[in-house]
Amino acid sequence: MFHWPPSEIDKLSYDDLLLFRELARQRHEQTPQESE
Questions:
Q1: Which of 2, 20, 26, 35 is the most exposed place for a label (fewest CB within 10 A)?
Q2: pTM of the complete model
Q3: Measured in Å, how far apart are the chain's first and last C-alpha atoms?
Q4: What Pfam families is this protein classified in (predicted)?
Q5: From residue 15, how far is each of 11, 20, 34, 36 by CA, in Å?
């Protein structure tokens, strides 16, 4: 799903990653798309 290089992932904290995923999930639910 995400194609970040390891160096970018290391810069993010675990909480920040979870928050980003949660926001992305909510945005996806608000704008459903036919194709995944």
A1: 35
A2: 0.42
A3: 11
A4: Phage_P2_GpE (PF06528)
A5: 12, 9, 30, 26
Q: Give the Cα-Cα-Cα angle 2, 8, 31 (nearest 5 degrees).
A: 35
Q: What is the CA radius of gyration of the chain?
A: 12
Residue 7 one-letter amino acid: S
Residue type, 2: F
d(CA 14, CA 1): 17
DSSP 1-36: -----HHHHHHS-HHHHHHHHHHHHHHHHHS--S--
- What was the pLDDT predicted at 28? 81
